Amino acid sequence: MRIESIQAAVTKALEPSGALWLAEARAQIAADPAALARLFPAVGRKCGRGQLWTDDPELIGWTVDDAVRTLLLAGAGIADVTAVYNYGDAAERRAVLRALPLLGLGAAAVPLVQDALRTNDTRLIAAALGPYAARHLPADAWRQAVLKCVFLGIPLAWVADLQRRKDAELVRMMRAFAEERRAAGRPVPPDVLMLVPELRGEEG
Amino acid sequence: MRIFDPHIHMTSRTTADYRQMYDAGVRALVEPAFWLGQPRTSVGSFVDYFDSLLGWEPFRAAQFGIAHHCAIALNPKEANDPRCAGVLDLLPRYLAKDRVVAVGEVGYDSMTPEEDAAFARQLALAIEHELPVLVHTPHRDKAAGTRRTLDVVRESGIPPERVVVDHLNEVTVRMVAESGCWMAFSIYPDTKMDPDRMVRVLREFGTDRMLVNSAADWGNSDPLRTSMTGAAMLAGGFGPADVDKVLWQNPVDFYGQSGRLDVSELDADRAAVYEGNSVLRGSRE
């Protein structure tokens, strides 16, 4: 994921009025970082909330406001990013979570990911499990989050680096989950069978 | 019948309510910030509440096909607790949000100096953020409270068409009608206002600037009273277009003044039912 492809997609997406607003917003934030608090919530109204059109597979599912907010966050430190997240509505929080891999914050933003994973808001949980969580979230929390996706019906295709991070403990947890479902006479979700193909043979 | 409930506290309601509301025709609502029955004692408690109005509750409503917007404010009752006064300093952060379509509920509870100060300050914030205002009128000494409310609104300089004065009844409606503010009525099982009385008010004062809400919360209240009022209007000789104006178009027009009302996800639904009718004008542009 690169800031350049986000910039390119935003340039294509914005109407002249949105482009002008973004240029002014960036200038204001450069002059006074506190302006971020006022400008960040207005992005959807000023630049739109439609799907972002891009060739970058890592930006699939992103919206224009996500991408513009990422550009506004570029260069912000962990204190400002945390404040924007804490005061954010759901759309703002989703944008912060999606932007995390690009902000060069190391592991400092893990508490924001953990906050999102405590919610039951599927938009936030999906956004929290992007490349940043794949890289920085401790294994226990990451496995619990993947299992939570199955419970909430969030497609596992949205979890970054799922196959690479998958380990024996996650497979055990998925097996136990499948067993519980079968005992209750309920179907095992296809995503679980995708993650643990051996379970397919045991179906029926 | 499609319904926009312009005042309801979904935080206190169940998923069964959401389902029944949808079945009755409710497709959009505004949840104003108010008190929760149990007084709060810290600013942090309000932060979590506002977050819920902007995060979890709209998410929950969407599961049931209902568009959720909110109004944000420090309510008059809790404005009297100095431990909560700091909420006023935080409001600008929340008034900047997409789904915040008004400042509210503000107004009077016991008509104290603290309430005066909070009310005036929040009217100024509404002007600054270009938002409409939802004003609660007191349960006790309602006529005097409503009169004083209208004085404060006038002094603030906010245009009256951006203000709705709520919980009106036969005694208080006329002074609000004459002020140019919008008039709102909370239809309750026993108190405030009932569907048949509402029909009489509409017959006398017309359907312009009129809002009907359930104001349902954690008390004895009913989220379906809006729908019952629509039925009472039809039974009382009003036509479907009048019902649609009061129960849908008027709330859209009032909150649409914020420029932030988004009922676009309801387009398909609406096009099917109201083809050819230029509903939602303004908010589409």
**Subunit arrangement of the protein:** heterodimer
CATH level 1 name of chain B: Alpha Beta
Taken as a percent bin, the fraction of beta residues of chain B is 5-15%
Proper CATH architecture of chain B: Alpha-Beta Barrel
| Cα shape of chain A | elongated
Q: What is the element string of chain A, with H for helices and E for strands?
A: HHHHHHHHHHHHHHH
Unreliable spans of chain B: 270-285
Q: List the total number of helices of chain A.
A: 15
Helix content of chain B: 40-55%
Q: Write out the strand line-up for the largest beta sheet of chain B, numbering strands in chain order.
A: 1-2-3-4-5-6-7-8
Describe the model:
The complex is a heterodimer of chains A (204) and B (285). The mean pLDDT of chain A is 95. The longest helix of chain A has 16 residues, at 16-31. In chain A, 65% of the residues lie in helices and 0% in strands. Chain A is mainly alpha-helical and 204 residues long. Chain B has a single domain (3-276), classed as Alpha-Beta Barrel (TIM Barrel), CATH 3.20.20. Helix content of chain B is 45%, strand content 14%. Chain B has helices at residues 15-24, 43-54, 56-63, 76-79, 87-95, 113-129, 142-156, 173-179, 195-205, 225-235, 240-256, 267-273; strands at 3-5, 26-32, 67-72, 100-107, 133-136, 163-165, 182-186, 210-213. In chain B, strands 1-2-3-4-5-6-7-8 form an eight-stranded parallel β-sheet, sandwiched between helices. In chain B, helix 5 runs parallel beside helix 6 (113-129) and helix 9 packs across helix 10 (225-235). The two termini of chain B are 24 Å apart. The relative contact order of chain B is 0.15. Residues 270-285 of chain B have low confidence and may be disordered. The chains are: A mainly alpha (204), B alpha/beta (285). The A-B interface holds A 37-38, 41-42, 44-45, 87, 89-91, 93, 119-123 and B 51, 54-56, 58-59, 92-94, 96-99, 259-260.
